[in-house]
Design brief:
The protein is α/β, with parallel strands linked by helices. The protein has helices at 64-72, 93-98, 115-125, 130-144, 159-171, 189-202, 215-221, 239-242, 246-257; strands at residues 24-35, 38-49, 53-57, 79-84, 87-88, 100-103, 177-181, 207-211, 224-229, 232-238. It contains 9 helices and 10 strands. It has a 6-stranded mixed β-sheet with strand order 6-7-8-3-9-10, with helices on both faces. The longest helix has 15 residues, at 130-144.
Amino acid sequence: MSNEIDNSTTTSVLEDPAESSDGSMIEALGLSKYYGQFVAIEEVSFSVPAGQVAAFLGPNGAGKSTTMKLLTGYLAPSQGRARIGGHDLAEDRLAASRLIGYMPEGGPLYYEMTPQSLLAYSGTARGLSKGDLAERIDFVVSKCSLSSVWGKAIGKLSRGYKQRVGMAQALLHDPEVLILDEPTSGLDPNQVAQVRDLIGDLSKNKTILLSTHILREVQAMCDRVILINSGRIVFDGPITDLGSNPDAMESQFRDLTTTDD
C-alpha cells in the first residue's frame, strides 16, 4: 500500500453523531491520521462492546499506537471521530477521559518521581478524595506488586517495574475502559502470568483493548482480534476465526500482514 494521500478523496462517511452507540464503550469512526503526505492510519473503524477484551494486533509501524493515542485523546485525528462510553473525544474530552485508563507503550513518563509520588499526583489530578485515593493506591500496589520499589525513582527501575507502574497508574481511578499498549513488554514469565490473571479479573467489569506482539497472550486473555496493517484494518473477528492455536494464528497473521513491494 502506498503511504501517499490521494487528495482527491479526503472525506469519510461517518455515522450521524446523534445515533446510538448501541452500548459500545470504545468506538473508532473512520479515524485517519496524516503527517504531511505520510499516512499513519486511514479509515480505521471498529467498536468494542462493554465487557469485551479485544486484542489490537499488527506488525511494527502498522498504526496500533497511533490508533490508541487517538482513542485516548493524546492525538487529534486528521479525519474521523473517537468515542468512549458515548462521549466524543473532540467534543467532551474530560467526560471521556474519566472513563479511560491508558497505559502507553513505554510506561509512565515522569522518571524523576517515585511510584508513591506519581500515583499520589495522578490521583489528586483525577480528583480522587483522600480516602478514595488511599484505598485505590492500596489496591494497585497490591495488584501490581510495587511495595518493594515504592520509594525508588521510576527512572532507576527495571523495564518490568516501569511497566507495573504504568499499569498501576492506568488502574488508579477504577476506569470502565482500559486501553493497554504492550502491557507485558519487558516482563519475565512469572510477571506475564500475573498480568494475564489481573486482566482476566478486570475483564469481569471492564472493557479492555490491548495491543501485544505475543499471540499466546491473545489466546490467553482475549475474546476478539482486530488486526491492522499499513494503517488499515485487515481482520476483525472472534479469536477462533484467526486460528485455533498460536501456530495457526501466526500463519494467518503473516498472510494478512505480508505485502509484496
